[in-house]
Each structure stands twice: as C-alpha cells, then as structure tokens.
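Structure request: DNA topoisomerase, Alteribacillus iranensis.
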Amino acid sequence: MPVILAEKPSQAQAYAEAFPKGKKGEGYIVIPACSVFPQGATLTWAIGHLVELRAPAEYDPAWKRWNLRQLPMLPDTFEFKTSYKTRKQFQVVRRLLKEADEIIIATDCDREGENIARSIIRQAGASHKPTKRLWINSLEKEEVYKGFMKLQEGKSYERLYDEAQARQVSDWLVGMNASRLYTLLLQKKGIEHVFSVGRVQTPTLRLIYERQKEIENFVSEPFFELTATFKTETGTYTGKAKGHFKTKEEAQQQFIERNIEKKDNGVVTKVKVTKKREKPPKLHSLSTLQSLANKKYKYSPSKTLEVVQSLYDQPLKLITYPRTDTQYITKNEFAYVKKNISPYQHVTGDHFEPASFHPSKRYVDDNKVKEHYAIIPTKKIPTVADVQKLRTDQKNIYFEIVKSVLAMFHFDYEYEETLVTTDVKGLSFHSKGKVETAKGWKQLFSQAKKSQKEKQQQLPSLPQLREGMEAAAFPEVVEDKTKPPKPYTEGQLINMMKTCGRLIGDDEEAKATLKEVEGLGTEATRSGIINTLIRQEYIQVEKNVVRVTKKGEILCRAVEGTLLSKPEMTAKWELFLRKIGEGDAEKDTFIRNTAAFMSKLVETVPKDMEQLEISREMIPDINKGRKDKYATKPIVRCPACKEGVIIQQKTFYGCSHYKKGCTLTFNRRILGKNITPAQIRLLCEKGETRVIKGFKGKRPFDAKLVLRNGKVEFSFS
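Returned structure:
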C-alpha cells in the first residue's frame, strides 16, 4: 500500500477530501480503495521539519564551548536528528514509511518541500523505497485528484533535494562558525551581545545600514527655481522654468536679463494634448502582494505571508499556491478564470462588461511558468456568508487577488496629458496637466490614503488653453533644498532584497547575477529573513519605518569589506545552488567551497577586527539594549578565579568574569539530569554535591558530582 507524505496536517486534510472518506488514526488517515488507489493508501504528514541538523556539540563535545581555538567547526560528515518537539509524529511517519510499498512525496512543490520529505524518508531508513511526486499548485479537490492521477517519478526531483541539502548544510557552516567568530571577537572589545551571522540576513542588514548611513551623512544643499502663476480668461495655472540655480542672485539674474517684472505679460506658445492609457497591473507574485499590502494596509511581509497561507490552506482553499515568484499563468488557469468572471464579480461587487476574453501575453504565457504560476483565486467561489466569516486581513488580501484577476479582463485606464509652454519675454515656463477620460480597471481598486508627497506629485487639471492666448504672469524665485533618500519601510525591504543588484555599483557581472537569481533570498524566505533581523535586534520597525539598532550597526561595521557583507556573494551561491537543482553542479563541491570560505574567514577576520575601533563611551550604550533572559542572580563565588560569580546562562552555568579570562563553566544538563543552582552552590563551596539519582548512561545510575582541577567528575563512593 502506498504512503502519501504531506508537509502539514492542513495540507493532508485537503488531500483527503479529494477521496472517499477514510478512517482516521493518530497522525495518519487511511484512504479506502478507489479509482486512484485500487488497494487504498495511507496519508500521513510532517509538521514542517521533523528532521534537523545536529548541533555542534553533538559532533564533538569540545564544540559546546564557544572558543576561537575551536573554529572553524567542520564535521567530516553532516548528520541529522529527529526534532525533539515533533518526535512523536516522526515515530508515526517512520513506521508507516517502513511498511509502505511506495512513497508519494506530497509536500510543498519547492526545494524546501523536497528537503522536508526526503530528510524524513532518509532518517526513517526508507530511502530504498520507490517514490512518486505530487506536483500541484492548488488544493481544490479537482486539482488534487488530477494531480494524483498523473504523479511524476520521484527520481526526477532528487536534484532539488541535493540543492536544498547544499543550502541547509552551507547555512549551518556559515551560521555556526561566523556567529561564534564575530561574537567572541566583539566580546573581546566589551560588547556583550551574541551576534547571529548568515549568508542572506547579513548582506540584507548591510544594505539597510548603508541606506541609513546615507541619510545620516546627507548634507542638504539649497537650490532655487523659477516659477510663475498664470491667470487667463479660462482659469489659473502654474509653470516652472527649466534649470536649478545654486544662489538666489543667480536665479534672479534670469529675470533681470529679460527685464521681467513681478507682474508681467505672457503668452501661451504651445499646447500639446496626448491621449495615454495604462494597462491593468500584472498578476501577483508573493513579493508584489507583500509590497502592496504593506503600502496599502501596513501589513508586515510576514503577516501577509501568514494571511495568504491561511487562504490557501484547509479549510478555505480560496487561492492557489502562495509562495510563487511568477506573475504569469498558463492557458489552463486562464480557461477556468474566464469561466468564473461573473462569480468573481459577484464576490467583490465589481460588475462590468469584460473588454476582452483573449489571453494576453502580459498575463498568460506558458513559457514563463516553471514550478508555480501567479497567485490567483481557485475555482471555489465563496458565498456572501463565507466572505463575512473571513477576518478583515483575509478579506482584504483575498479581494486584492480576485480584483487583480478581474483587472486582467477590464478596460485600460485612459487619460489626456497636456503639456503647455508659456513664454514671458523669452523665458519659457512649462506646465503639465492630466484629465482622466476613462477609469477602466482602476475602478476596481480603492485607493490607499495618499501621502502629502503623492498629493504634491499628482498632476493638476489645467484650464482650457490654446496657443496664442494671453496670460497675466506672476513670476518668482522659489527656494528649495535637496532631500536625503527615504528610510525603508518594511514592505520596501522585500522589493529591495529582490532588486538589490541596482544598489551595488559598477560590477556588471554581479548585477547580472543578482538579476538572474532575483536578488537576496527567495519568495518563500524573504519575510522570514526580515523577521530574523527584528528578532536578533539588528533592526527596529516603528510606524512601518525600518531603523538599524546599535547592535546592528556594530555588526555591519565588523563585517565591512568581507564577502559576508556583499549581496553578490550570496547571489552567486544561489546561482550555484540552482545549477545543483538542474543537475549541472554537485552538492559536495558547494559544501567544500563553503568550508574553505569559512576557514579563510577564521584566518583573516581576527586581524581585520583589530582595526575596528569602538569608543569606550559607546559600549555601555550598546550593551544597554542587551536582552539576556537566561542571566539570573549570582549563585555562588567562582571557585576558580575567586573574583567573579557563577550565574545561570541558557545551557550552562558560567563565571561572570569570562571576559577577564575565567573559563569555568558547568553544564545545566548532564546525562539526562537537570543540574540545579543549589547543586552548583554545593559543588563550588564543598567540592561535591549530594548523591543525584537517575543519570542515564548505558544503564541508569546514581552518583555525586565532584569538582577536581576545574572539571566535573562522577563519584560513586
């Protein structure tokens, strides 16, 4: 009997609904015999990653302690373990996989979905079993059923697993080694934080930091422009002469040379009216939806991802696969969307006669769709009652997706743009106006509240003007000043990461690489990277504006000049990873290259860090923001240095004078037993604890802990 492995319970439930009702067990569902599975099938699920890479100390006990002498940590082979939190479900999945005749991988259709499934299969000892692959973009019953009817050969996707493994292992190498390296070196300079370093998060942070420094170092300079207000028989309008001037005198000289008065006569010399049109916007990828939701509703990228995932998952299943980087659909999707225009209109209340039913290449292109297509509504049409049950954020996002599809069938937005030139004694003033002639697709979308800047940039409606018309002119010199770039909003970070090739200077090869891989991260990971930067206290988001913290600034200064700070490096990695997935490069080569890079970093960074200057005045300010939720009150005087005190940390007890060289530490957990502060006090004051029962060796045993020459040993006397 085949076993179907889904990525999460909600996904499994959606699959089960495509088949006759089956029997539920603990962690699985039995699908009865049917046309797809004549012998029946068993459907089970992961809960995300049931399997994870081992921690450094599980390779070598010496790696438990953070020590520069132990770097780089380069395991000979990388080993995986069952995640502690989900071990119960793993036991269910392992039993079912071992009993299976065939395994159907039905996790998300991307490299991480493949990684989740095959890591579990390998850990369960079922890699020798034949595999098939379900590859669908919708959880609708009909699409699920069709997907299971045309399963792909599992072998065709093994390279995707290699790609994900190369990514996972290399991120472990960078994260574990670089984080310890920079943390320990910065601690030598008095910075008490732990610094997390990553191949994507660190260059992303660096780009935010560069924008912030550009704003801080910006020196505003005044400039002067020539403007005029014109009054005619048909109305009033304004115009501006070309050019900026450094001083007010230089600007006024333009008037003096032409003998232009404060009130003078002008004449309209040119009126050019151009009919223009804007096509409906493209369909949504995850990035475009995240950017729009942040600008319009102030939703963070992670919130938008959570909302679209909830609309995709069981029980709603209102939209197609959300973690897509594509803005195109194929002719198959276009066919069902076209049939459902009227129901979609009924859902949103936007009734209009479609302009065309022809599949435009702007939206429909089979060649532009690889694994996934754009985010669009499914064939499932919610009732009015269904829509009312949605949360406000779900309704907002769902309507944006439906309206983007309706816009594809709507008329263009049309307007007339008028360019006017008005002459005052040989000085030309230029005016631009706009008159909307057909609302078109824009009638679908309620406009977000415009900012003051957007209102100022909005083109006015000019009065009816004709060439040769006289105008009373009121010219003046207007002072303005250059403005710094704006700080990023949280939504703009998504687009910045995707298009960061534009920000890296003159390296055309690097720009091309970043464009090819679509910048830093992937559609599925970018919001998570932003969340990591917030969680690590590298950035703060206040009123949707992103600011780098003192801790973030220190890390940016520390990595400056290294490959870790450069987005082009991680882009080249992503390009290599893609080649692994396509079968044009090898996983082991990539991992070896990453290990060599870490060895080089460990060799060079300590020397470079000697040049990093941190003023003593800054250190208390930086450390002030440190959140150490594990540190407690002093437990006992340190028996080693006699000066510091032993305090509790996350996974150990250690001396408070570690920066002054005291390295005495005690594990908080020894052979399955939690060691209490009271036992540590006895160990330090008396040299031994009372008998502790239940240590778990090959057999359970009882023993005292004794402190001999700075090391903890067992005593069985």
